[in-house]
């Protein structure tokens, strides 16, 4: 008879895996020497897409309530879905977990970041004019190129994923192939170029410069078709609408202007956006929202249909340097400031949803999401490119309290905070289980002078000055002494720091034997004991002897004498 065993699932998600290299190279004398293994953290995004495709075959709707809940274990990371699979759960796509920090020999700051269209590599530009290519899975260095004579400001791929256009602080624009082969150089402006954006057809692109002008260029001929003037200061950012010929620009004069790129001329509309110079500007892929950040510590979202402000995000302690949309989650975006902090936001929720404090030493100049959305790269003044990923099942989750007063590390801390109980020390206890001692009601005074019943626990919790809980209870002493022969089947009264009276108790060894039925009629152990009355503010003694009880073991077996007929109680004297 053959047994059918379920197929063993393939290891579809190697979120963190070592690249083991045990190659043996012959030396000069012909001997073989074993090289040390190289362990690199690898971030693989193909596994979640395999899970998503397999689930779509069995569940074509892929609704949010069809998702299988993941257990908080490392093994559950094999069943995780890509960010597009959690569109209704945007909190699952916040990239707050540090993965790797990459830095080349150059000491220049990272001023521009972008991912290749297929997501295999991350390209960074420095203030020294260098390009550095990093592997998108293991994050190791691949190549370096001296691309510009001045600092790199922008790096943008065309929508058809065939060309790369970059700009620098000297006012030049360069065309590159995907293999980083230089094709054309354009002297576009007389000052540094702060923004480059392509139209939806890739036939045109716009540049914004510190000379207070914007220019619309024909990509094929590399000639300027129109010049947009009207800003009273340096143009710090610009972006092209994803489907229309609408260009948005932000300037040092704190204004956002909307332009028609087909006719040029004056601006269509002006938004009084910030109280300080703007730093970044980006259209949402739905074409309705416009994201802006400024040096007034504020990030804003604008609805261009009403030409009004939609959301104002406050929380950065210093100037905001950049802000970008999430590529898959519609209402999520992230911003970076001059203190090296990164904050994740949602349009539908007020306040900061997730935060990475001191992600860099100094300003964060550039942020870029992987096309899949599972990884975020950041670069700044310290010259490092850092990679951040989503929190995996089994990792510690740092959530922000609604009042931003502290950070809750575990669900037990959240419970304790809501009850006014002090938080435990972080790091205590076994990882994945929680703190060494979770806060319970036994930590606090429950009126030790009187017994607490199940009905008056709420009133005792609110007792005390200001409705606060009382001081912590001292450690409980030994249980009270119960004389032998008084009542063998009734357990002694529990200490005050035990569960409330009336709770179910498991019968002891002396309460079990032949014929024992915990839910049957007849004589048996007491399965529930109500709260005894208090006498003078003290706990009463043991209950009076009961005749209709089961005696203890005798000679290794249970003795069951016949019951006497019920009658009036007899005096002991």
UniProtKB/TrEMBL annotation:
<protein>
    <submittedName>
        <fullName>Uncharacterized protein</fullName>
    </submittedName>
</protein>
<feature type="repeat" description="WD">
    <location>
        <begin position="186"/>
        <end position="227"/>
    </location>
</feature>
<feature type="repeat" description="WD">
    <location>
        <begin position="357"/>
        <end position="388"/>
    </location>
</feature>
<dbReference type="InterPro" id="IPR019775">
    <property type="entry name" value="WD40_repeat_CS"/>
</dbReference>
<dbReference type="InterPro" id="IPR015943">
    <property type="entry name" value="WD40/YVTN_repeat-like_dom_sf"/>
</dbReference>
<keyword id="KW-0853">WD repeat</keyword>
<feature type="repeat" description="WD">
    <location>
        <begin position="228"/>
        <end position="260"/>
    </location>
</feature>
<feature type="repeat" description="WD">
    <location>
        <begin position="271"/>
        <end position="312"/>
    </location>
</feature>
<feature type="compositionally biased region" description="Pro residues">
    <location>
        <begin position="561"/>
        <end position="573"/>
    </location>
</feature>
<feature type="region of interest" description="Disordered">
    <location>
        <begin position="447"/>
        <end position="573"/>
    </location>
</feature>
<feature type="repeat" description="WD">
    <location>
        <begin position="145"/>
        <end position="179"/>
    </location>
</feature>
<dbReference type="InterPro" id="IPR036322">
    <property type="entry name" value="WD40_repeat_dom_sf"/>
</dbReference>
<dbReference type="GO" id="GO:0005847">
    <property type="term" value="C:mRNA cleavage and polyadenylation specificity factor complex"/>
</dbReference>
<feature type="compositionally biased region" description="Pro residues">
    <location>
        <begin position="471"/>
        <end position="482"/>
    </location>
</feature>
<dbReference type="InterPro" id="IPR001680">
    <property type="entry name" value="WD40_rpt"/>
</dbReference>
<dbReference type="GO" id="GO:0031124">
    <property type="term" value="P:mRNA 3'-end processing"/>
</dbReference>
<keyword id="KW-0677">Repeat</keyword>
<dbReference type="Pfam" id="PF00400">
    <property type="entry name" value="WD40"/>
</dbReference>
<dbReference type="InterPro" id="IPR020472">
    <property type="entry name" value="WD40_PAC1"/>
</dbReference>
<feature type="compositionally biased region" description="Pro residues">
    <location>
        <begin position="520"/>
        <end position="546"/>
    </location>
</feature>
<dbReference type="InterPro" id="IPR045245">
    <property type="entry name" value="Pfs2-like"/>
</dbReference>
């Amino acid at each position: 008879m053959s047994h059918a065993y379920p197929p063993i699932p393939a290891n579809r998600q190697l979120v963190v895996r070592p690249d083991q290299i045990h190659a043996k190279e012959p030396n000069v004398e012909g001997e073989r020497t074993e090289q040390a293994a190289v362990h690199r953290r690898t971030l693989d995004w193909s596994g979640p897409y395999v899970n998503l495709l397999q689930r779509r075959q069995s569940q074509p709707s892929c609704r949010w309530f069809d998702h299988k809940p993941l257990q908080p274990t490392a093994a559950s990371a094999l069943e995780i879905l890509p960010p597009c699979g959690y569109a209704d759960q945007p909190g699952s796509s916040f990239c707050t977990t540090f993965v790797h920090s990459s830095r080349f020999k150059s000491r220049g700051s990272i001023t521009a970041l972008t991912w290749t269209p297929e997501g295999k590599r991350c390209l960074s530009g420095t203030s020294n004019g260098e390009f550095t290519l990093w592997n998108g899975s293991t994050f190791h260095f691949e190549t370096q190129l001296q691309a510009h004579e001045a600092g790199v400001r922008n790096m943008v791929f065309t929508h058809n994923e065939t060309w790369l256009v970059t700009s620098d602080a000297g006012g030049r624009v360069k065309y590159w192939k995907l293999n980083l082969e230089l094709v054309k150089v354009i002297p576009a402006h007389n000052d540094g170029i702060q923004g480059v954006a392509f139209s939806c057809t890739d036939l045109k692109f716009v540049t914004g410069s510190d000379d207070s002008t914007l220019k619309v260029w024909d990509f094929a001929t590399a000639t300027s078709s129109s010049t947009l003037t009207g800003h009273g200061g340096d143009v710090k950012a610009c972006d092209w609408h994803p489907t229309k010929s609408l260009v948005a620009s932000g300037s040092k004069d704190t204004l956002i202007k909307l332009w028609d790129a087909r006719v040029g001329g004056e601006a269509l509309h002006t938004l009084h956006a910030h109280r300080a110079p703007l730093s970044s500007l980006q259209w949402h892929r739905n074409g309705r929202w416009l994201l802006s950040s400024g040096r007034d510590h504020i990030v804003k979202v604008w609805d261009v249909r009403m030409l009004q402000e939609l959301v104002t995000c406050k929380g950065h302690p210093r100037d905001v340097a950049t802000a970008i949309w999430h590529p898959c989650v519609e209402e999520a975006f992230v911003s970076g400031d001059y203190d090296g902090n990164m904050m994740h936001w949602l349009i539908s929720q007020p306040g900061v949803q997730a935060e990475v404090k001191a992600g860099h030493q100094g300003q964060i100049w550039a942020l870029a999401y992987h096309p899949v959305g599972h990884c975020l790269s950041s670069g700044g003044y310290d010259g490092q490119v850092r990679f951040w990923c989503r929190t995996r099942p089994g990792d510690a989750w740092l959530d922000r309290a609604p009042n931003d007063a502290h950070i809750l590390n575990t669900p037990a801390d959240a419970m304790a905070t809501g009850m006014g109980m002090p938080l435990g020390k972080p790091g205590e206890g076994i990882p994945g289980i929680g703190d060494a001692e979770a806060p319970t009601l036994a930590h606090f005074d429950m009126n030790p002078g009187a017994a607490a019943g199940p009905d008056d626990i709420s009133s005792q919790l609110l007792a005390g000055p200001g409705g606060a809980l009382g001081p912590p209870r001292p450690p409980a002493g030994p249980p009270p002494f119960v004389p032998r022969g008084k009542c063998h089947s009734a357990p002694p009264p529990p200490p005050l720091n035990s569960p409330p009276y009336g709770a179910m108790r498991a019968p002891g060894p002396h309460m079990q034997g032949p014929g024992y039925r915990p839910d049957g009629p007849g004589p048996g152990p007491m399965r529930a004991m109500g709260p005894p009355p208090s006498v003078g503010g003290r706990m009463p003694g043991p209950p009076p002897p009961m005749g209709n009880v089961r005696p203890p073991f005798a000679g290794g077996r249970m003795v069951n004498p016949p019951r006497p007929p019920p009658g009036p109680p007899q005096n002991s004297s």
